[in-house]
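We give the entry.
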Amino acid sequence: MTSATTTERPSPYRLLAELEQRCRERAAGLPEQEEVVELWNGIGFMLGGERYVAPMGEVAEILHVPRATQVPGVRAWLYGVANVRGRLLPMVRLADFLNLPVSARTRRDQRVLVVEHGDIFSGLIVDDVLGMQYFPVDSFEDQASGLPDPVKPFVRGSYVRSDERWYVFSTFALVDSQAFMDIAAW
């Protein structure tokens, strides 16, 4: 009888240990953990040459300025009433209400921010809408300096991004104000 040379098979444990070692040697490192920045968002708009942003929950929709019927005996800043999908939408020229100059190049640039708050359904005509805006929460500042006095009661601070200041404009505070509700001309 001849003695056969037998080759020993590696144990399953040893195979797994070698496989683990090779995986560790060839594994790429984990990506660097990036810091997550919390963002605040709103609808950006222009009014009187300034940038404003309304909180997302305070604007129901954005419209082109629809045809409207003028209402007699009301203040000059009430643009009129429009039928929007079967609902009467009173529209206010916000620049006129706040005694600001209109900075829109044309009427086609203007938009209506529709506000639904409690029983109030109203449209605010602004010079232009700049779309969704996002700001790092830590860039918020309480200041609203440099704004005209009629605007200050409705501004809740500001955000700065790329050396541009965006004032947070509360449409709910506006429609809750007694001056906004006082539309009679006499």
